[in-house]
Amino acid sequence: MKAAIRPRGGLMPRYRFRQKQFGYGATPNTWQGRLFTIVLALFIAALAFGADFVRTDGQRFMLIAIGLPLALIPFLVIGHAKTEGGWRWRWVRSGSPKANEMVQWTISSDERREP
Question: Is residue 3 one of the residues assigned to a domain?
């Protein structure tokens, strides 16, 4: 009996985020990416909620100034490393339905400018 051939990397996909179709950045692609994003959001919410219980403004500022980068920097580094294709600005692909819609909108807005 032959063993099943597994894709490279086993059963789990290698990348947890995928490229955004338009704009810059990535969006979660797997449950691990979604969980990672939810944990970040909960940490930031707890940080903001906890800042209300700090007595002085200076301590509150330090809590947020230290806690926010401690949450965001690892998220950005890991998110960038786990994104298939990396991060870059993405425009509308020519030939796609969205591109045709954008061209029609551009033409109609150009026609309005002319007297």
Answer: no
